[in-house]
Write a structure and sequence with these properties.
The chain is α/β, with parallel strands linked by helices. About 50% of the residues lie in helices and about 10% in strands. Helix 2 runs antiparallel to helix 3, helix 4 crosses helix 5 and helix 5 runs antiparallel to helix 12. Bound molecules: guanosine-5'-diphosphate.
């Protein structure tokens, strides 16, 4: 909880300052409510949520006004209500061995880091884990995953740079099966510069995994960087066309004042949100909890 509140400070401080500025001296009128909407849109909550919050704030209070704390409480309640349905833990089906988790997302979104953190979490829960360096396009990505493997004591299946990613994923699944591994985490490339190639590669990885296990991947996580704001919406649309996205991980909530994007994503897609990243360290991956997030963001 403290990691979450300190991580979310940039979004919550920006919002909280605006709310304090808007509601401390000024009387509650249509202009104030519009300014509140603008503040929420700037924090990437999206128009619908911004309007719903301002309506809730304005409702019947024109006469007596409203304090900044009351506004924050209304905001927190609206955010919690919007996020409650999508806050779902990542369920690992023990009957699937290995339980195959594919991670997708644009370069730099935080896929590799998230996989390292996740490997550590799963191992701490007593599971055996294997990592597959499926971003074969960048040597640095392979090396980075190996570093995370060493740091978390997790074996890493990797090939040479430029190797076929689907072939590597297939080999990794075979190895994980052979070793009786509980969870296989597969990294992928995310070069948006070549969208057609990217989509074809992801489709091929899924196809090849299914040759070995018709149910695989058992989870496909789209990793999104909160700092890109509204752009995250189009990334969901794009990746949904190439892979069976089953849930989201939102990273870098600590580095942005745009944390409201999670609310906009929930409203638009309703995809489960499993984890949020609030820093670069191995511990900085939090299971997503709507109430905690709502309280942290509203300040
Ligand atoms: P990938 O290209 O998607 O695999 O992205 P990386 O895992 O390499 O991450 C890109 C950069 O973002 C790295 O410098 C990470 O340390 C950083 N990063 C990843 N997740 C977080 C997070 O939750 N918070 C912060 N502040 N940085 C993060």
């Amino acid at each position: 909880w403290s990691r979450l509140t300190s991580g979310m400070r940039r979004t919550s401080t920006a919002l909280s300052d605006r709310v304090t500025g808007l509601f401390t001296k000024r009387k509650l009128d249509a202009t104030t409510l519009e300014d509140l909407e603008d503040a929420l849109i700037q924090a990437d909550f999206g128009l619908d949520t911004a309007m719903r919050v301002s309506e809730a704030v304005g409702k019947g209070r024109y006469e007596k006004g409203i304090s900044p704390d009351e506004v924050r409480a209304i905001l927190a309640a609206e955010v919690e209500r919007a996020l409650e349905p999508v806050a779902q833990p990542l369920a690992i089906d023990e009957a699937r061995k290995p339980f195959v988790i594919l991670t997708v997302g644009v370069n730099g979104a935080g896929k590799t880091t998230t996989l390292g953190k996740l490997a550590s979490k799963l191992r701490a829960e007593g599971r055996t884990v294997m990592l597959a360096a499926g971003d074969t396009f960048r040597a640095a990505a392979i090396d980075q995953l190996k570093v995370w493997g060493a740091r978390t004591g997790t074996p890493v299946v990797s090939g040479a740079q430029g190797a076929d990613a689907a072939g590597l994923a297939f080999d990794a699944l075979k190895q994980a099966e052979g070793a009786g591994t509980d969870v296989l985490l597969i990294d992928t490339a995310g070069r948006l510069q070549n969208k057609v190639g990217l989509m074809a590669e992801l489709e091929k990885i899924v196809r090849v995994l299914r040759k070995q296990d018709p149910e695989a991947p058992h989870a496909t996580l789209l990793v999104l960087d909160a700092t890109v704001g509204q752009n995250a919406l189009s990334q969901v649309e794009l990746f949904s066309q190439a892979a069976p996205i089953s849930g989201l991980v939102m990273t870098k909530l600590d580095g942005t004042a745009r944390g409201g994007i999670l609310v906009a994503l929930a409203a638009k897609f309703g995809l489960p949100v499993h984890f949020i990243g609030v820093g670069e360290g191995v511990e900085d991956l939090e299971p997503f909890a709507a109430r905690d997030f709502a309280r942290a963001i509203a300040g």
